[in-house]
Amino acid sequence: MERNVEKMLKRVSVVFLSIGTMLMVIMILQTPKTCISPEAPSKPHTHFPRSTCDSSPRQHLPLPKKNARIWSSGAWKSRLYSFSTYFLRFRDLGFIQNHTKALCLSAGAGHALMALSQIGLSDVTAVELVDSIPLVKRADPHNLPFFDGVFDFAFTAHLAEALFPWQFVEEMERTVRRGGFCVVAVDECGGDDVRDIARLFHNSKVVDVANVTLEGSKKTSILFKVQDSPT
C-alpha cells in the first residue's frame, strides 16, 4: 500500500514539474506586447514607462516653476500664515524690526524665513542639513559656519529633534550678538520643562514665555535674551 502511494506521489510530482517547465519556456519565448515601436530611437533620459503604452517622457519643471507651484499651494500658504502670525507678536513687542538680522535653524523648506521676510525683515538666513534652494542653505546647526555675534535674532522650532541639544543651543547663542534674542518653539509644556530648556542656555535669560499655536499644533514659545559670555 505504501509503495503504491509513493509511486503515485512521484508520478504527480513529475507531472507538475513538467507543467512548470513548459510554462517557464513559454514565458521566456513569448514576446511582450508594447506600444513602443522597435524602430524607435533609444532615449537614455526617458523614464521607464508607467505602463506598456506609456512611452512619453515625464516633464521636469525648472526649479523656479517648481518652487512657484509649491509656494502657491494651499498647504504652503497655510503654514506661511501660521509662522507670520507667530512672528508678528515679536515685532509688536519690539523684539524684532525690519532691520533685524535673523537666523532660522533647522528651517525645513523655509516657511519661517519666508514669513519673516513677509512681515518686513530684509536680512534673513535659514539653514538645514539639506538645502532647499533658494530659501534654505545647507549647514549643520551644531556647527554653524558664521562668526560670533553676527545675528540679532535666532529661531528654531526643532530643538527637540537636535542630536546634541546643548551644542545646538551653544551655536545659537554664539552667533547672536549680546542683547539679541534666541527663540525656541517646543511642544506645549509647563514650568518644569521650561526651566529644563532654560538650563541649556548658559549665556541667556528668559524674557518671555507664551503658549501659542504654530502649524496647527499647540506649542510653548520661549524667548531668551543673550547676555555676556562667562569669562
Features:
transmembrane helix, transferase, 231 residues, alpha/beta, seven-stranded mixed beta sheet, 23% strand, single chain, S-adenosylmethionine-dependent methyltransferase activity
Beta strand %: 15-25%
Task: Record the strand order, biggest sheet.
Answer: 3-2-1-4-5-7-6
Radius of gyration: 30 Å
Q: Please summarize the sheet with the most strands.
A: 7 strands, mixed
- The number of helical runs is 6
Order of helices and strands: HHHEHEEEHEHEE
Shape: elongated
Structural class given helices, strands, pairing? alpha/beta
Mean pLDDT: 87
- The proportion of residues forming helix, as a percent range, comes to 25-40%
What is the strand tally? 7
- In terms of per-residue confidence, which ranges show pLDDT below 50 for 5 or more consecutive residues? none
End-to-end CA span? 97 Å
List the helices and strands and how they pair.
Blueprint: H1 2-29, H2 63-71, H3 74-92, E1 101-105, H4 111-118, E2 123-128, E3 137-138, E4 151-156, H5 165-175, E5 176-187, H6 191-200, E6 204-214, E7 217-226
Parallel strand pairs: 1-2, 1-4, 2-3, 4-5
Antiparallel strand pairs: 5-7, 6-7
Helix pairs in contact: 3-4
Describe the structure.
Helix content is 37%, strand content 23%. It is built from six helices and seven strands, in the order H-H-H-E-H-E-E-E-H-E-H-E-E. The mean pLDDT is 87. It comes from Arabidopsis suecica.
Offer a concise description of the structure.
The protein has 6 helices and 7 strands. With 231 residues, it is an alpha/beta fold.
